[in-house]
Amino acid sequence: MTEKQNIFDPKKGIQEAKKSRSVAKKHTSRKTRGTSSKSKSIDRYNSWKLDLPKGEVIWGNNMERVDLIRKGLPFESVEAISSKANISIKQVLNVMDMAQTTYNKKKKDQDKLSGRDSELILVLAELLDFGLEVFNNEKDKFHSWLKRPNTSLGGASPESLFDSLTGIQEVKNSLNRIEYGNFA
C-alpha cells in the first residue's frame, strides 16, 4: 500500500461537497409567493412559511427575516400565529404586550406590526414549524406538549415562554433534546 492512497485531499473533498450541494439546490428549490414581486429561489428544506388571509410570507434565511422585520408584518399575522400555535388571539396579544383595542384599530387601519412584534411572530413561526417536524406533523400531540408543564423548562409550559426570544430559544432547545432522544 502506497502512502498516497491513505492521504485525504481536502481540496478535492471541498470540490466534491460544493458539486453535490449545487446539484441538490437545483432539485429542491421553489419560487416564493407573497414576499415580493421579484421571484426568488428558496430551499424548501430550509424555509419557513406563515399563511395569511391575503397570501403568505416565506423566508429562507436570517437576512430575509431581517428584511421582513424591517418592513413589518401585517396585523393578520397575529391571527396566523394564533392558528398555527392553537392559542387564542388574546393570548398572542398578551405575549406581544398589546391591548385588544390597539390591535383592532391597527388591523382596521391596515398598519404593520412593529419590528419587535414582527420578529417575535417570525421566530415563533420558525419554532412552531420545527416543533411540528419534531412531532412528525402530529399537531394534536405537539399542541398538547406546548400546554403541559415541562421539567426541562423549570416546570413552565412551553407556550408560557413565548413572550421573549430567550424563552422561545429555551423551548427550541427542549425540542432539540426530544429530537435527539433526550426527552424533555
From TrEMBL:
Q: List each copy of the Antitoxin Xre-like helix-turn-helix domain by range.
A: 64-124
Q: Where is the composition biased (Basic and acidic residues)?
A: 9-19
Q: Cite the residue spans of the region called Disordered.
A: 1-40
The Antitoxin Xre/MbcA/ParS-like toxin-binding domain, residue ranges: 133-181
Query: Where are stretches of biased composition, namely Basic residues?
Result: 20-33
Q: Which NCBIfam families match?
A: TAS_TIGR02293
Which protein are we looking at?
Answer: DUF2384 domain-containing protein
Native source organism of the sequence: Belliella calami
